[in-house]
Amino acid sequence: MIGTGVLKGMAVTARNFLGSYFEKDRLITVQYPEERETLPENYRNFPFLVYDNDPEAGLRCVACKICEKECPPQCIYIVKSDDKKPDYMGKPQFYPKIFDIDISVCMSCQICVEVCPFEAIKMDKVFELSRRERFDALLLRKDELAKSNTYYHGIHPLEAAEVDANLAAAAAAKKKPAPAPAVPKT
Ligand code: SF4
Ligand code: SF4
Question: Where do the domains of the chain lie?
């Protein structure tokens, strides 16, 4: 019959309209900023640098500059240290004297995270970053980028647990004594 489709469509609209007064699930408007939805595990915005225990000494970044080279819009700027200092496992490492990310240019592609061999850079979920200043207010410096591993666990629990397990396995493998050389048979 002509018009059946229209009537069915209107019935769905009416059901949702009336239902929205009684069922919370049907309410799709979130009264932001008073109300906030929990962001999904895989939500990502801009990168941050992970540290273990101490924001300076515990920074995992060793200033290898791979992320700087691979970043498509070239919004990462790193100056490597001249000296070395012990990392969180006590191994002497270079560290970034300067580490800046211009988030007004960053396109949240996550390539920096994927290429980092040290699990040192991860994607953040913070999105309330608007500024009044026009120039370098969105240029995030090392001290603003550094966030703890506990913070990382808070925003990406599954991913962070997997990273911790991989790092622990790698550290354990390094500690394992090398197998004794085979003695040739006489
Ligand atoms: S997320 Fe992409 S654009 Fe942003 S800093 Fe990383 S590599 Fe560069
Ligand atoms: S964040 Fe990772 S890839 Fe980038 S410089 Fe530091 S260690 Fe290297």
Answer: 54-125+135-166
